[in-house]
Amino acid sequence: MRKYIRKLKSLSYPQIIALGYFLIIIAGTFLLSLPIASRNNLFPGLINALFTATSATCVTGLVVFDTYTQWSLFGQVVILLLIQIGGLGFMTVVTMFSIFLKRKIGLKERGLLRESINAMYIGGIVRLTKRILLGTLLFEGIGAVLLSLRFIPKMGLLEGIYNGIFHSVSAFCNAGFDIMGKYGKYSSLTNFAGDAVVNLTIISLIIVGGIGFFVWDDIEKNKYHFRKYQLHTKIVLTMTAILIVSGTICFYIFERNNLLYGMTTGEKVLVSLFGAVTPRTAGFNTVDVASLTSASKLLTIVLMFIGGSPGSTAGGIKTTTLAVIMISLWSSLKNRKGDNIFGRRLEDNALKRSSAVVTVNILLILSAALLISATNKALGLDAVLFEVTSAIGTVGLSTGITGGLNTFAKIIIILLMYSGRVGSLSFALLFTEHGVTSSIQNPVEKINIG
């Protein structure tokens, strides 16, 4: 026993976080495997229960069963709790109980917290965690009230409130799980495509949950004074605005003669806005994803690959990673020294880390697509690429192939979702964290690039 305790104490922060998510997934798999979790009181299958627990904990939203028709109220509550824990980060939840029990939070726990929520500094981390918990309660509460007001007339009082809470938590945590199966399996929010209140509430929750906890704190401190924001916040807000606006315009153009045909101008704009926001990385849909044009599917894949921002409930390579690469590219093209933006210079290793994140994600996507295509020959390459990008980006959008995947493909998707939530680079580092770094460097020799 002491041997195992020593091993646990020697684990790095990323390894502890990865282990924490793994244990939560195992617990969720056990609970979803119970007869009481399914409407038919039958065992759903170990892989299917594991898939659902992983998707919920990793706030993805890919499902092998329709959530409403397959899972009982008990099963749905388990999924909702997994979403909330996965969205906030298990260390944030642990800290919440520590604060409630007035237990002192040690330095190691503070370091884990910093790593868990991707904060830049360990100082003030407990105060930031308290704000995260209060902010989450506030935003999810407002979202639940607004959604309930629209759902109650259609579903009744208790069911309307329950649906409001479920979808508010799912949207804020960028999970994409829905319980709208009563209106048709896998229908998501298609029955509310023209409802401005439902759409704008879900969109707002996705954006707020996806910009990151650090950004909240910075905005709360400096209010609307953009110049006072830290560089991280400026980049996140700018990139988020660019992606939303450009994504909405592109979606509108690509679908104006397809899924948007026959809608009013207001409905077209609303559906286009939703289509630009949900891939980063929520997983809800108000139109049939399988019926999108090829251009819209490619646009969605790109948005899923980018995802949200660091220290948030979202996945993907993150907006800051994309910004660093674009800034460095522009500096190289202009032959400028240093990568500068908003009157500041990026740290020297920012490009190296960003390139590593993008490269690891691309390699995982291509490897997974190759393996799934080889073992599921009936599936088109576009559908497979869409699925694996959605999994590693913890998005949850699908063209409808998830339930039909074989066991091998489901295991690959499970690993991608887990990697996406832990962080693809952190996942890769799990196996090299204890490597010894030599201070001796080899001689430099030039090579041709490009």
TrEMBL record:
GO CC annotation terms, alphabetical: plasma membrane
This protein's record includes keyword tRNA processing: no
Membrane topology: Multi-pass membrane protein
Location relative to the cell: Cell membrane
Family annotation (InterPro entries): Cat_transpt, TrkH
Molecular functions per Gene Ontology: hydrolase activity; potassium:chloride symporter activity
UniProt KW keywords: Cell membrane, Hydrolase, Ion transport, Membrane, Potassium, Potassium transport, Transmembrane, Transmembrane helix, Transport
EC number: 3.6.3.14
Regions crossing the membrane: 12-34, 46-65, 77-101, 132-152, 196-216, 236-254, 314-333, 354-375
Superkingdom per UniProt: Bacteria
NCBIfam families per UniProt: 2a38
Protein's name in the database: Potassium uptake protein, TrkH family
Organism: Acetivibrio thermocellus (strain ATCC 27405 / DSM 1237 / JCM 9322 / NBRC 103400 / NCIMB 10682 / NRRL B-4536 / VPI 7372) (Clostridium thermocellum)
Lineage, opening ranks: Bacteria, Bacillati, Bacillota, Clostridia, Eubacteriales
